[in-house]
Amino acid sequence: RGHLNPASTLGVAIQRRGHDVTLISTPEAEAIAKRMGLRFAPISIAEYNSGDLTKDKETLGLLEGIEAFQCNVEIVSKAAKDTYRDLPAILEEKKLDALLIDDTCPAAISIARVQEIPFGTLAATPPLLQDDPSIPPFIFPWGPAGNNMILRSRNWIARKTLFEIMAEPVARVVRAYNKEHGLSPPTLSPRTIGLVQLTQLPECFEFPRDAPANHFVYTSPWYESNRDSSIDFPWDKLDGRPILYVSLGTTQNRIEQIYKNLIQACHGLNNVQLVMALGREGASLNVDLPNGAIVAGYAPQLQILEKASAVVSHCGMNTCLETISCGLPIVACPLTNDQPGVAARLVHHGAAILRSTTSSPQEFQLAIEQIMNVPSYRLAAVRLKEKIAKAPKLDAIAKLIERTFQKGTKLQRNDPETMEILAAT
What we know:
single chain; six-stranded parallel sheet; four-stranded parallel sheet; 16 helices
């Protein structure tokens, strides 16, 4: 859901402008497409029916750190092979005019280049297509390098290690396809890729950086306020105490000890009501809960955030953007993939306290008390909220996408018409 929810929300905004939009993903995403009113085309049908996709997700949910990243690389490698097999037939059948491709899907980028279909990229996380030496790769919990040449060199070495060695299983699949079709080798430099590159990461939430490619645009979080309205929740059980909302996402959410440590931490917080979402349908914990605690498989996150006082998060991009858009501070507990990079941005902007997955209940309790009682964290979150409110919104982004594909040339961020569209928030 971390990539599907924002991408499908942007798809709805494009559809409102009179275009037909098809979500292309694995079969379990069909329910999201149907709920959002989008057309749907599945890939990896055989792998879904065999249970392989479910097994991979369950394995990933038990891992963290480098092990989880390596597991994710294997999953993306398999997905690339499935995409090369399945996507060309979908494009032939649907006669699509343009593609917006998640920047973690290099196979789709290759296919678009071979078939000469106009395309842009979407980053639901801090952008993967990144060549700025001042910004570290997002799997590392490092702050910005600024003009420090030692730190810039560290970032360059880390990026080379990450994408040329650790992500070699994906690169190997993409290289083979590119060679077969006469394409240049895959690159992570964003300067030449696509007609437009969009990220839901707001510019105010990014590290200080060098100028990005001129067709790259920071926007604002891609969600609609009514997204979770159909999710049942026992609102009558809220007792008026300040709410601490805990969510560790929908993927890396099977490490029960983290939940148990957080629950134990809340036993010592009598003036706080715990609301915890486990991120899986029917999930539960066999543990003694604090007085008044509410634990659910899923929760209407956006509505709860409107009532909450603070959040504990794995630092998935969606949850963090939704949290700071409400002006709430965060206890950041990143697990893997982009989450350390998101947590580092939160800490850099003063809106979070960092804890690890191995933090004790006492360490979690101290962090929660600080985040709820020290005003500077909330003030930092409110400052981000106010800046995000001025960032380009969904309808402006959809108009920009429409204009870019109609013109058929690379977007120029400093073009007067582009600037006018982005300013209409």
